UniProtKB/TrEMBL annotation:
<feature type="binding site">
    <location>
        <position position="20"/>
    </location>
    <ligand>
        <name>xanthine</name>
    </ligand>
</feature>
<feature type="domain" description="Phosphoribosyltransferase">
    <location>
        <begin position="38"/>
        <end position="157"/>
    </location>
</feature>
<dbReference type="GO" id="GO:0000310">
    <property type="term" value="F:xanthine phosphoribosyltransferase activity"/>
</dbReference>
<keyword id="KW-0660">Purine salvage</keyword>
<comment type="pathway">
    <text>Purine metabolism; XMP biosynthesis via salvage pathway; XMP from xanthine: step 1/1.</text>
</comment>
<dbReference type="InterPro" id="IPR000836">
    <property type="entry name" value="PRTase_dom"/>
</dbReference>
<dbReference type="GO" id="GO:0005737">
    <property type="term" value="C:cytoplasm"/>
</dbReference>
<feature type="binding site">
    <location>
        <position position="156"/>
    </location>
    <ligand>
        <name>xanthine</name>
    </ligand>
</feature>
<comment type="function">
    <text>Converts the preformed base xanthine, a product of nucleic acid breakdown, to xanthosine 5'-monophosphate (XMP), so it can be reused for RNA or DNA synthesis.</text>
</comment>
<dbReference type="InterPro" id="IPR010079">
    <property type="entry name" value="Xanthine_PRibTrfase"/>
</dbReference>
<protein>
    <recommendedName>
        <fullName>Xanthine phosphoribosyltransferase</fullName>
        <ecNumber>2.4.2.22</ecNumber>
    </recommendedName>
</protein>
<keyword id="KW-0808">Transferase</keyword>
<dbReference type="InterPro" id="IPR050118">
    <property type="entry name" value="Pur/Pyrimidine_PRTase"/>
</dbReference>
<feature type="binding site">
    <location>
        <begin position="128"/>
        <end position="132"/>
    </location>
    <ligand>
        <name>5-phospho-alpha-D-ribose 1-diphosphate</name>
    </ligand>
</feature>
<comment type="similarity">
    <text>Belongs to the purine/pyrimidine phosphoribosyltransferase family. Xpt subfamily.</text>
</comment>
<feature type="binding site">
    <location>
        <position position="27"/>
    </location>
    <ligand>
        <name>xanthine</name>
    </ligand>
</feature>
<dbReference type="Pfam" id="PF00156">
    <property type="entry name" value="Pribosyltran"/>
</dbReference>
């Protein structure tokens, strides 16, 4: 998606450790025009799969998921990283390790919002090592919901996440695929 790639090139910053900082339009401040385009792109790609719900993890996956949900006309469920007074029981849960934050979070989704009848699209902001998506897949499995697709805003193709998910047989669509962040230069996968 050229618009997203332009935002990454012009507004993204490469930090040590192959970290891409995109907080000016995705992870802290949100560019609603860009997110609307992202949502439309995901909706167009996954339109004919009978999706009943979109599932993501708080917080950076919420904006692209909501815009895709708006386009597809389906609810968006986000896995919570912190327990609250209103979310304490009757939960699907999984543990997710974040390499960027160097911490493990238990994610939770209420059993009231996912079930056997659901065909779900998973959406996340980044795919690197695949841990967040694997956690969401575990939640979907517990719910006995069918995952019909995985949408990623930015993929670090030089890391193992895509290979893990493809090996498991899931259809993945990434809007921007990064081949390398070496020497603080953002290189996209050719032909994407």
């Amino acid at each position: 998606m050229k618009l997203l790639e332009e935002h990454i090139k012009n507004r993204g910053t490469v930090l040590p450790g192959n970290v891409l900082k995109v907080d000016s339009f995705l992870n802290h401040q949100i560019d609603p025009v860009l997110m609307q385009a992202v949502g439309k792109e995901f909706a167009n790609r996954f339109a004919n799969l009978g999706i009943t719900k979109i599932v993501t993890i708080e917080s950076s996956g919420i904006a692209p998921a909501v815009f895709a949900g708006l386009e597809l006309g389906v609810p968006v469920v986000f896995a919570r990283k912190k327990k609250s007074l209103t979310l304490t029981e009757n939960l699907f849960t999984s543990s997710v390790y974040s390499f960027t934050k160097q911490e493990t979070n238990d994610i939770s989704v209420s059993k009231n919002f996912l079930g056997k009848a659901d065909k779900i699209l998973l959406i996340d902001d980044f795919l690197a090592n695949g841990q967040a998506v694997l956690g969401l897949l575990e939640v979907a499995e517990q719910a006995e919901a069918e995952v019909v697709g995985i949408g990623i805003v930015i993929e670090k193709s030089f890391q193992q996440g895509r290979a893990l998910l493809e090996k498991a047989g899931y259809p993945i669509y990434s809007l921007a695929r990064i081949a390398s962040l070496e020497n603080e230069q953002i290189r996209f996968v050719e032909g994407e």
